[in-house]
Amino acid sequence: MKEKVVLAYSGGLDTSVTIPWLKDNYDVEVIAVCVNVGQEDDMDKVKEKAIKSGAAKIYVEDVKNEFVTDYLYNAIKWNATYEGKYLLGTSFARPLIAKKLVEVAHKEGAKYICHGCTGKGNDQVRFETAIAAMDPYIKIIAPWRLWNIDSREAEIDYALSKGVEVPVTKEKIYSEDWNLWHISHEGGDLEDPKNEHKTDMYKCVIPPEKAKDEDTYISIYFEEGIPYKINGEELEPVKLIEKVNKIAGENGIGVVDLVENRLVGMKSRGVYETPGGTLLYEAHDQLERLTVDKDAYHYKQMLALKYSELVYDGLWFTTTREALDAFVDTVEKNVTGTVKLKLYKGNMKVSSVESENALYDESISSFGASDLYDHKDAQGFINLFSLPSKIKAMKKMEKK
Fold first, then answer.
1. CATH code for the domain in which residue 80 is found
2. Catalytic one among 10, 16, 94, 177?
3. The domain that contains 288 carries what CATH number?
4. Is residue 367 part of a domain?
5. What is the b/e burial string over 46-76, where b = at least 16 CB atoms within 10 angstroms of the residue's CB?
6. Catalytic: 285?
């Protein structure tokens, strides 16, 4: 009886090539698993292509709702951003995909899991670290670390020699990852930072200069840091993300072009479209500024850097991540209210922020007098606050 290999399958170039390669090099039965985290693919065609390419069976796991509630809600609560710009679309999806691969491997009695990640990328680390955290006895097959195919162009040639359709050409050879949160573009002419990226690659966002000429207002209601309503309408988690993606995308919001530091040690360039995430992060941050006290807000900002690196590095199934999420859940208990944003051609402007939990009080913050704050009190505070500076200056002058 043949051993079974569970393959993380998307129907993209890397995984399309992997099925025939596995069958050429191993005496195995390939079980393809396509985890639907919101990529806009025709799943019937994905199934058909996997079987046609040589898979014995394919599972299509629709996990979009779980992706939002168990992963993206955490992203929003943290405003998690790697190196100040990347909203971690791929990074948040990988542990969930790995979880489903392990579940199918257990169901099928498979000893091996195969992925199509390159030997230079972050995803190989994310997948394998997550798999090891759930089942350390499963063995990994990583073709990019084994085969003699040395480029995406060579992959295309190999696929065509096996009669396998591929979704890219040598002229449009970008590596793309698409899910409910974002789409990333890498490779091709993007590999030279001197090249301005082409806006015709966009899939979710209208280039700002081509966006509509009138303002769009959007109001978002959050409850304990989680978005629930758009323009007063309560939406299911997936529908809400789809709604904000559409509104932000048609207003040219959510594209970043960046050079990032990969986990494996090199720098890489990517163009990321995260329209809804960009909009939700801005609204959520504005609400936090109104409802979270200074020390908690500042400490959360410091921890958000650590949290984002942890997610980027593939350390989702760890005690540290669980502990950090417990912290942020406590901070977010007060983050309830409505934020209205004004959108125009790639720009966002805060229109209003309202919350019953607001820590801002006009009667206190106003320049006028208030019962809680006497202007005269500031003198004593400043004398004590500046005392270390005064002592240091005095000692310095005594030495002259």
1. 3.40.50.620
2. 94
3. 3.90.1260.10
4. no
5. bbebbeebbbbbbbbbebbebbbeebbbbbb
6. no
From 10, 91, 175, 184, active-site residue = 175
Catalytic residue among 10, 16, 91, 123: 123
Q: Which residue has the tokens 């051993």?
A: 3
* Domain end point (choices 329, 354, 379): 354
Task: Tell me whether residue 123 is one of the annotated catalytic residues.
Answer: yes
Together in a domain, 66 and 173: yes
Residue 175 appears among annotated catalytic residues: yes
The C-alpha atoms of residue 35 and residue 101 are separated, in whole angstroms, by 8
Amino acid at 195: N
CA distance 210 to 232: 28
pLDDT by position in tens, the chain (length 400): 789 999 999 887 778 889 989 988 999 999 999 999 999 888 998 899 899 889 999 999 999 999 999 999 999 999 999 999 999 999 999 999 999 999 999 999 999 999 988 888 899 999 999 999 999 999 999 998 998 877 777 878 877 787 777 665 555 556 789 999 999 999 889 999 999 999 999 999 999 999 999 999 999 999 999 999 999 999 999 999 999 999 999 999 999 999 999 999 999 999 999 999 999 999 999 999 999 999 999 999 999 999 999 999 999 999 999 999 999 999 999 999 999 999 999 999 999 999 999 998 876 666 666 667 778 888 999 999 999 999 999 999 998 7
Q: Is the pTM of this model over 0.90?
A: yes
Pick the catalytic residue: 10, 14, 126, 184? 14
Co-location of 167 and 218 in the same domain: no
**What residue numbers bound the domain in which 255 lies?**
183-354
> Is residue 97 one of the residues assigned to a domain?
yes
